[in-house]
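Backbone-to-sequence.
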């Protein structure tokens, strides 16, 4: 048993506070990880405000890089000393998605079996089965994806972000949206996820990449990551703007990285005939959009959603780390500030201000 500091929310809308957390030694199939860095994601805030469920207390944090410090019986995926990115898709290999060869849809992903607790024994629910705003965390070994490429210490903050939002965005373009060289792609909402989708479109060779947001600063960063055009949809109609930049046709692919009815409809209307749209922003429960069915039919193409960017961590994380090291994917651009574990609650406020892509906790700070 290890006694560490971790960021916990005890009840709906309570502040996220630094608490003593008891982390068990790994049992069969589990790994204990010394956390190096962990990004603050919109989803952590969703947990805090009760938007994910009512299983308080939550141990927050899930966009992490770390070092494996112990493994349980039967673990073959990783060994002690391995540098890893934590993922929330440790695939089971047995569900109907895995059996039909589509493990990125796995319906039965693995987490640690043992629970981390507070000092009084209260069981903690780790965010996305990870709980990495802590000095150590316990996960299923399959949640650890080994980083084979040597990195400098300060690069882990950027690479850890591949554990969630950045991968969701890149995957929405590369996997779900299947961007091809020469295509036109529009991304609506350029926070961490949307900007990553812009970077994914650039990696895939799209030649027209249109970033849409309501905030000019976000649009500037999107340009740094590969956007060829920007639209501030407060002042310009997003659909007309996208059509104008694509010879009046609409984009081959439009990605909605916000997930509200307005942006969904913009994405729906701003695609070319037979064009694709991908929803990667997570709508609040109960959100309803009214779509004219005749247009769904006559427009052709596809409407898909991207869970975690249809990412298979074992396949995609090492490839993306290599793109970063080769200088083709500027993950450093996503690290807006580096903070300590005690500053997570403040980071939620900074996030709401819209001024950052990611605040990243460095546990040693
Ligand atoms: N699908 C997945 O697996 C997955 C994974 C992680 C996060 N997400 C979701 O992706 C979404 C984006 O996450 P994020 O971390 O980038 O959030 P964020 O808050 O950093 O970014 C949202 C961006 O959208 C912009 N925006 C808001 N309303 C807009 C509008 N009407 N038109 C255009 N732009 C608008 C904001 O200015 C901001 O730049 C969230 O819903 C999040 O929960 C999905
Ligand atoms: Zn499965
Ligand atoms: Zn996340």
């Amino acid at each position: 048993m290890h006694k560490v500091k971790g960021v916990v929310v005890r009840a709906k809308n309570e502040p996220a506070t630094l608490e003593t957390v008891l982390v068990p030694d790994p049992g069969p199939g589990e790994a204990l990880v010394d956390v190096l860095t962990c990004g603050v994601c919109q989803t952590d805030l969703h947990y805090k405000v009760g938007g994910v469920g009512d299983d308080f207390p939550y141990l927050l944090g899930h966009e992490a890089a770390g070092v494996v410090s112990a493994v349980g019986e039967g673990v073959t995926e990783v060994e002690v000393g391995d540098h890893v990115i934590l993922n929330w898709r440790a695939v089971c290999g047995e569900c109907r998605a895995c059996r039909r060869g589509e493990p990125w849809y796995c319906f039965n992903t693995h987490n640690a079996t043992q629970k981390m607790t507070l000092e009084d024994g209260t069981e903690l629910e780790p965010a996305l089965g990870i709980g990495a705003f802590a000095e150590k965390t316990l996960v299923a070994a399959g949640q650890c994806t080994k980083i084979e490429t040597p990195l400098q210490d300060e690069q882990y903050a950027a690479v850890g972000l591949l554990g969630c939002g950045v991968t969701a965005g890149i995957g929405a373009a590369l996997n779900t949206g299947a961007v091809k060289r020469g295509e036109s792609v529009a991304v609506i909402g350029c926070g961490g996820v949307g900007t990553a989708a812009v970077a994914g479109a650039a990696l895939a060779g799209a030649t027209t990449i249109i970033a849409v947001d309501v905030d000019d600063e976000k649009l500037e960063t999107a340009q740094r990551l590969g956007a060829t055009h920007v639209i501030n949809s407060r002042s310009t109609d997003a659909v007309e703007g996208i059509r104008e930049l694509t010879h009046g046709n609409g984009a081959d692919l439009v990605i909605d990285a916000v997930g509200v009815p307005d942006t969904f409809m913009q994405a729906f209307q701003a695609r070319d005939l037979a064009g694709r749209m991908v929803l990667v922003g997570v709508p609040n429960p109960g959100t309803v959009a009214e779509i004219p069915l005749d247009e769904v039919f006559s427009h052709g193409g596809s409407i898909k959603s991207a869970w975690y960017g249809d990412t298979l961590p074992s396949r995609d994380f090492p490839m993306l780390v290599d793109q970063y090291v080769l200088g083709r994917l500027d993950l450093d651009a996503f690290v807006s500030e580096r903070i300590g574990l005690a500053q997570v609650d403040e980071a939620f406020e900074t996030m709401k201000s819209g001024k950052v892509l990611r605040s990243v906790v460095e546990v040693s700070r």
